[in-house]
Amino acid sequence: MASCIVTLSSVLAIVGNSLNIIVLTTRKFLTKPHAYFLISLAVADLLTGMVDSFSVYSSITYTWPYGEPFCLLTNYVREALLEISLLMILCLNLERYIAISYPFRSKIWLTKNRSKAFIFLCWFVTFAFKIYLFFDVVYIVEYDKDIYACTPEYDNYKGFAIFSSVAIEVPALIILTITSVKLIVALKRLNSRKHREMFHGSLQRRYSTNSRNLRKNLHGFKVLVVIATVSYISLLPSLSLRLLYISDNDEEESAALNLSWALEFSFFWLASCGSFANVFVYYFMDRNFSRCLRDMLQELKRALKRKRTTVLSRGCPLKENGSPTNQPLSVISDNRLNSQACTNV
Asked: What are the UniProt keywords, alphabetically (predicted)?
């Protein structure tokens, strides 16, 4: 059961975020600055799924076959990527908050170049701040058989461990809470404004450009509120588990020893669930994204069908409409189709 959860989480994160990146980069989503934060969030979640995929084999064999250096690397990268995902969600909420509070200045403040620079700063600072996890000097990183992943042992430097754990996540969660509350208040305000326009406004005003922008803002706010809620649900248990490890001592009646295996496993891997949950939020709540994703999959299906038709019709006589005839191709001994010889039925 545990190996199925680890495998499913990794596969959904890799496949879902890969499609997410393809849609965001190939379609006309890069016209606004917040699209770059969405791409950065998808990249961080994709890399998180790739790192978690190394635990699939470990969840089956209960061993870590990749060596100690790779154990350090996976722990370091996973911790940094989870915090980068939180920072990107925070950036999305801040971007919407600025757009609401300062609608005219936001067009000057929120530019594409500034968004790219801030994304680079978040990635660089987070990986630089977490670099101590890559070296086996401050903490000893070992494979944990209960959660099928490498985690540090917080036997020494507990004060620094608490600071490093809460220095980025706790302020980010506090700011995320404030901006989410602001967004909810703005959501209710805009929703009441929408109803006033529907029941008291004229038909021309109801379908004006202002009303269309209002409905678009309402929809965007709902998506961000749901994403922020998913972040809380996925990250708070993992942060609580980490603080529990740090505060643990060598006594036999410690809290970490009394923690059940299922709860410890759930808290740890719940953080990775947020890496693919955002994809489902986009698909079911953003009609433009879901439509573009379906169109892309349909184009891929048609391209594969055209390629298959070309391979089957290569070297064979075609009908007048260009489709291949029903004459079968001869098969050679190594099970490959001989494209140069077509036999009559």
From this structure: G-protein coupled receptor, Membrane, Receptor, Transducer, Transmembrane, Transmembrane helix
Angle between helices 112-129 and 158-200 (to 10 degrees): 150
Which of the two residues, 86 and 167, has the higher pLDDT score? 86
For residue 195, what is the enclosing H or E element? Answer: helix 158-200
List pLDDT tens digits, range 274-290: 888 888 888 887 777 88
Q: Which residue has the tokens 């891929």?
A: 300
Half-sphere exposure of 295 (CA within 13 A, CB side): 10
pTM of the model: 0.79
What sign does the CA torsion over 94, 99, 105, 107 have? positive
Q: Where are the alpha helices (DSSP H) in 62-131?
A: 68-101, 106-109, 112-129
Q: What is the pLDDT of residue 285?
A: 79
Contact of 218 with 190, CB cutoff 8 Å: yes
Q: What is the pLDDT of residue 205?
A: 46
Return d(Cα 128, Cα 73) in angstroms, integer: 14
Using alpha carbons, select from 258, 215, 262, 205 the residue that is nearest to residue 237. 262
Name the residue among 46, 43, 27, 38 with its Cα closest to residue 96: 38
List, for residues 117-153, the tens digit of each pLDDT value.
Answer: 999 999 999 999 888 777 766 677 888 888 888 888 7
The predicted pLDDT at position 193 comes to 61
Would you give the end-to-end CA distance of the chain in angstroms?
52
Q: Residues 271, 277, 279, 282: is their CA dihedral positive or negative?
A: negative
DSSP state of 134: G
